[in-house]
Design brief:
The protein has five helices and nine strands, in the order αββααββββββαβα. Strand 5 and strand 6 form a beta hairpin. By secondary structure, it is α+β, with helices and mostly antiparallel strands. It starts with a helix and ends in a 10-residue tail after the last helix. Helix 1 packs antiparallel against helix 5. The strands form two sheets. Strands 2-3-8-5-6 form a five-stranded antiparallel beta sheet. The protein has a domain of about 140 residues: Jelly Rolls. Helix content is about 35%, strand content about 30%.
Length: about 210
């Protein structure tokens, strides 16, 4: 029973880890790479009253790029350099907005960079921040706005890229549920086996 519990627990963890790894990092096809530029860009200027003066100074943008519904779901990956130009230690949340050609927001999302997890990468190497996936409703040209906040703007000013990936996978409930069920059953078997081993010999079946 103990071996079965261990096997089920490991199988559950591996199922969850493999599925989430595929969804987050491995799925989809790279579409293009774009340099992140300082400022909001001309499309925001065309959207009257869209961005205030204080917010405008912190924004960065990438694009324009051509997208269509056949690419759904699309994920943008922010590639930020490490070392002296990297974001400060601790978590940095990158806010993102996708604008259409009229300057209207068609999607909002975010991604998190955990500075403490960098592992001391060499200056000039990069870390990837995966933004939330989005759906394109109509074919056209789009611009991505990035707001890294005060602590993340240094890394973007020193050089960052946006990598677009098309047709990325999304988490499937079946894989997640199967992994969780296997893990829970495995833990239950381990606990049951542990209680059986601790039971006094007099209470064991067949004991005299």
């Amino acid at each position: 029973m103990r071996r079965s519990g261990i096997a089920l627990s490991v199988a559950g963890v591996l199922t969850l880890a493999a599925h989430l790894l595929h969804v987050q990092f491995l799925s989809g096809t790279e579409l293009a790479r774009y340099r992140v530029m300082s400022g909001p860009g001309s499309w925001v200027d065309a959207a009257d009253g869209f961005v205030g003066a204080a917010e405008r100074a912190a924004l960065h943008h990438a694009g324009p790029f051509a997208l269509d519904p056949g690419m759904n779901p699309v994920r943008a990956v922010l590639e930020v350099r490490r070392g002296s130009a990297a974001p400060a230690a601790g978590s940095v949340i990158y806010g993102a907005r996708l604008l259409d050609e009229r300057g209207a927001t068609v999607w909002t999302g975010s991604g998190v960079h955990h500075g403490q997890d960098d592992g001391g990468g060499a200056p000039g190497s990069s870390v990837s921040v995966h933004l939330d996936p989005f759906e394109v409703e109509s074919a056209g040209r789009y611009v991505l706005l990035l707001d890294p906040g005060e602590s993340g703007s240094v890394g973007l000013r020193s050089g960052a890229n946006i990598i677009l990936r098309r047709n990325v996978a999304q988490a499937r409930a079946g894989f997640v549920v199967a992994g969780l069920i296997a893990f829970v059953l495995g833990v239950a078997l381990l606990l049951s086996a542990g209680r059986g081993r601790r039971r006094p010999a007099a209470e064991q079946p067949g004991a005299e």
